[in-house]
Amino acid sequence: MEWLTYLLKVTACTALFFGFYLVVLRKLTFFKINRFYLLASLFLSFIIPALQFEVKRKMPMLETELVDMPDLKPIQPAPVQLIQPIMVEYQPEVTSKINWVGIMAYAYSGIALLLLLLCLWRLFVLLKHTGSYTQNSSGLKLITKTEGFTNCSFFNYVFINDADLSATDLFVLLKHEQVHARQYHSIDKIILMVLKSVLWFNPIVYLYDKALEQVHEYEADEITSTGYGNQAYANLLLKLAITKSDIPLIHNFVKSPIKDRIKMLFHSKSKNMKKLTYLLAIPVVVGLVWLFAVQVVYAQNIKDEGKPSKDFYERALKGKVLNIKKETIGLYTFDLLSNGKIYPIEATTFKEKIKVGDELIVYISGKGFNIKKTDKNGKVIAETKELIYNATKVTTLTGSLIYEQKIEKHAFLYEANKARSASSKIKTIETDINGKIEKIVLNDGLFTINLNLKAQNIKDDNFKVGDQVLVKFIGEKLVTKNTYATDKMIVLYSEPKKYLIKNEALYSRFYFNDGKQKVAAVKNQPTEVAKPVTPKIISFSKITGDVQHKVSYMENAVIDIVNCRLEAEYVELDQLNGKMIAKNAVLKAKEGGSATAKIIVFNLRNGNYNAENGNGAIKVFKGLGPDQKMLQGMRDSLTKADNKVNTIVSYSAQDSVKMSKDKSIVTLYGKAKLDYKNFSISADEASYNRNTEKITAKNLTLRNKVTGITMLGSYGEFDINGKAEVWQGNK
Fold first, then answer.
1. Membrane-spanning residues where (predicted)?
2. Are residues 112 and 45 in the same domain?
């Protein structure tokens, strides 16, 4: 639609510019300046809408109060009447899939292209007659014709019919056409032909064409009549007025309205002071720039206490919630006004805990990020309009915690071969008098690992304090809280892998020479079968049913199903087949939040369900969208029925696969890949915890196979029961 908006703005500019010409400039006899104005205003009409300026204005702080919505009261149940039901067949509403914007684009382009081709054809027809000519002393190329277009010119070519012209009349005509040639009026004609093809739907551009041609003739008439006399020149115009031509590229001697040209011959010349009138065009230009090219951004003035305190670190923001909105991609965000700048903050997981007008302290991580949603062919169909920031912590001004992002850390992980693995930094290196390493202390900011290497007789100068390393070991002991010690280090790598210290005896027990583990990873356990669920009818306005087939039809029904309340205009409950269909339904989670759907079909035997919102039935899985979050919470409850269920997660890695001692935590290194439900994760490093059913990943790409949403980030956390968060920048 941007192209259509642009063309409409161009049309509006041409209308205002030409209106100014008609009202103020048309009667002035400064024909050269009028010609320049008409051409310049046409070009400005195309330039101004393409410009983009931003002007920031401050506005006083407004206190906004969010009005609470009234609670919905349940409908009083009507008495149950079981009668023979009327068969109801649901037919999905058919929506038009015609892309009218696309059709308009093709129609506009097709007509414009056809008109441009017509211009080329007319130019070709005109040039066919320029093969033979006679050149006079003034440089004009004279072509004698008795039919078609005559007594006209195109650049230096002059087409004349001298049968009815005296020598004097011919002299005057050639002088007139010489003015057209020397002033390059034909260039203006070509420009207008192209612009009329581009703006074929705009009536103003045709008025421009006539006005510009009129100015050309006024200019040529003024110069020619100076040496010939106004009266005699006017008589010549009347004599040749019967000649007509339909070639738009030429200047015909008497094509323009004769009456206006003769009146202009005898019109008194405008005084030079009148040239100041053209300065009035400047406000018109400024007004159009302001209207179509300037975007005003309003920012509220905030008090001094709204600025971050000195003890805040760089990415702590103190400000006010301006609004809470849903992005086209599905996420919820709120705009935080902090220190005169507006920050869009992602708030899908805690949007119910904040409201417009709240004053908050928000800690953001890294740079802003954007998300694009693509279809199966990779075409972007939706994306965030601006960079969005991720909140790691949100509190009130008094310090009350609203939200905090939690990252689970471990001192080390277990590989499938039962070796321990940890990524950390060297805190200290202790050596003896001979330079042999006795002890290396590692610390990642939370956990400390003491590597006692005295018995291994190692001498190495490559490792320094502060280096990032990857260590693999066994036989660790918990010395104090968060501190471990071992004298059985297997290998110590620098990160990136450039140097290493290897315990050959232990290394050969756990790894092959190429670094691969000698014990394969254990596959995950399959999913258990879900238990059936039973809906609880709360109220309805009308019910009919079929006792024999155990089918009930309810209108305006309210039904509880596991941890959600279903409110629907129509519900069909088939107890015999374990199926329930809800039309125009709203699902409300007991812990807050709601979602709507045209049709929801519940399978009461296994807890699964399908939802449709007008674009065909789709399976609702654990999605990233806020509306799907609540729906998915219900689906998880339906499927699990309050029993723990392990979900199948397939994974692989190029470098290594590590597993905790109880095989509950799997860590993947080097081109790690994980698939769960309809999501696929590719990352440099990833970890999956079967107990918490959570996945963490670094430098990752997340793709939803159903919706086509793709997210990129430096760090991500995923709860395979529905929640997913991805950050960009430093986490």
1. 6-24, 36-53, 105-127, 276-298
2. no
